Amino acid sequence: MKIEARNISFVKAGACNTDCLIVLVDFDWLFGDTPQHSESLLSKPQWLTAVLSALPGQQSESSKSKHLLISETLGSKAKRILLVNTNNYNKLAECDADTAHKTRQSLARHATFIWSTLFELPVKKACVITPFAEDHHYTQALLDALLFASYRFKGFKTSPESKSPDYIKSIIIGVEQNELLPDIDLAMAIHRGKSLTRDLANLPGNICTPSYFAKTAEVLASESPLLTTEVLDEVMLKKMGMGAYVAVGQGSEQPTCMPVMHYKGAEDPDLPSIVLIGKGITFDTGGITLKKPPGMQNMIYDMCGGATVMGIMATLITLRLPINVIGIIATAENMPDGKAFRPGDILTTLSGQTVEIISTDAEGRLVLCDAMTYAQQFNPAAIIDVATLTGAHIVSLGSHASGLMSNSQTLSSALLEAGELSGDRAWAMPIWDDYQESLDSFAADMRNSGSNSPGMITAGCFLSRFAGNTPWAHLDIAGTSFQYGTGNSASSRPFSLLFAFLSQCSESTNYQWTISPVLY
Question: Which fold has domain 190-509?
Answer without folding.
Answer: Aminopeptidase (3.40.630)
